[in-house]
Structure formats: C-alpha cells, structure tokens
Design a protein that fits this description.
Length: about 55
C-alpha cells in the first residue's frame, strides 16, 4: 500500500483558504474496474438503507 495515499489513490491538502485534491503521484488514478466495484458497493449500501427506512416507517 502506498504511504502517500494509503491505497485511496487520492491525495489532498487543506489550508485555511484552499483545498487541493489530486490523484496520487505514485499510484495514479483507480482503474475503471475498481471504480465500478466501489460504486456498486455504495449503491447497494444506499439501497439497504432505503429498505430499512421503509421498514421502520
């Protein structure tokens, strides 16, 4: 795992007046397969939350 981005492929710097977000210079951007898998996981979590909210209502 990269010590700069800790495997996230994103490097950010925050100061008082700005926020800089960029791809990790060592790892580069995530592959399309990894992005799609992460997006699918997020969508399934959102769907699960919606189901739980419907059940509680």
């Amino acid at each position: 795992m990269c010590q700069i981005c800790n495997g996230t492929h994103v490097v950010s710097a925050i100061s008082v007046s700005s926020i800089i977000i960029s791809c990790c210079p060592i790892c580069g951007p995530e592959s399309e397969e990894v992005q799609n898998a992460r997006f699918a996981d997020m969508l399934s979590e959102i769907a699960q939350i919606k189901r739980l909210r419907k059940k509680d209502a």
